[in-house]
């Protein structure tokens, strides 16, 4: 059974989220959702790209979702990137 977790990207540097993702993968998480909203969409893509650089061919994209959601009276765009990292042998 796959274990799934998520990271919501905010104002911290990209490297912090990459570190968090690697820690989650090393703790047994197989699938990770990287979520960026509004002005942090570019940073979520940056986190994915940095993870792909570090984990190379083992990281697989499961799903990419782009949309918008209501937050109070505003509509906020978001991106959700779901990646799979097979557990270490």
Overview of the structural elements:
The chain has 89 residues and is α+β, with helices and mostly antiparallel strands. It has one domain: Alba-like domain (Translation Initiation Factor IF3, 2-Layer Sandwich), CATH 3.30.110. It is built from 2 helices and 4 strands. It has a 4-stranded mixed β-sheet, covered by helices on one side. Strand 3 and strand 4 form a beta hairpin. It is globular, with a radius of gyration of 13 Å.
Strand content: 35-45%
- Oligomerization category of the chains in this entry: single chain
Output the structural class.
alpha+beta
Order of helices and strands: EHEHEE
Residue-averaged pLDDT: 93
Name of the CATH first level:
Alpha Beta
Strand count: 4
C-alpha-based Rg, rounded: 13 Å
Name the features.
alpha+beta, globular, 2 helices, four-stranded mixed β-sheet, Translation Initiation Factor IF3
Summary, kept brief:
The chain is built from 2 helices and 4 strands, in the order βαβαββ.
Sequence-ordered SSE layout with sheet pairings:
Elements: E1 4-9, H1 14-26, E2 31-37, H2 41-55, E3 60-71, E4 74-84
Parallel strand pairs: 1-2
Antiparallel strand pairs: 2-4, 3-4
Helix pairs in contact: 1-2
Domain DNA/RNA-binding protein Alba-like: 7-65
Organism: Ignicoccus pacificus DSM 13166
GO molecular function: DNA binding
